[in-house]
Specification:
By secondary structure, the chain is an alpha+beta fold. It has one domain: Jelly Rolls (Sandwich), CATH 2.60.120. It is 20% helix and 43% strand. Strands 1, 2, 3, 4, 5, 6, 7, 8, 9, 10, 11, 12 and 13 form a 13-stranded mixed β-sheet that branches. A hairpin with a 4-residue loop joins β4 and β5. The N terminus and C terminus are likely disordered.
Length: 205
Amino acid sequence: MRAPSSLAALVAASAAASALATAADAALTSYADEASWRAAAGAVTTVAAPNIPSGGLYLPQLGLDAAVVGTPIPAILVDPWGLPAGTNVLQAGQNGQVWSRAFNFSQPIVTAFAIDWLFRPEQDVLGVSAYFGSTHVGSLFWEPASAFPGPPRFYGFTSTLPFNQVVLVGTQMSWGRAVMFTQIPAPGAVALLALAPLASTRRRR
């Protein structure tokens, strides 16, 4: 994994996303292969080109509100990505300074997260952190692309504890083709599902 050249910058960006973060004993398992990640993640919700909306990625029907933008694919990426000109892709960050972008999830909560993304080779800081409320679940450092322009790479992880926010940190503008995640029912929903058969039995008596 790529260690940041400025750990202080990464810490500052993460703190901006969750100033009250506290430690938790949970491991994030990283995946560079989508098939292996999907096998571990289970049922997956995917938001991907060519079905990315313009503007902010606010999809309440999927429980997702992300600080990334749907925008037409840059001309330089049309051939390497194999997408028609004008197709919306996701964009995050700016060049030359540390940025952070949050993916926020409403209930049900999340246990796996992945992106198909192109991070420029010049990234000095490239990391991802997962949170559940104010609790820090875990963090990973990721490798950027080896060349630009080029195709997106798969980045994914699963967690031993659920989370409801993912924060990406980088130092160069980046583009994404897909966001993927696995949700589980909230505790209240689990209780309702468990009670449903009992209620049905009582109605039949």
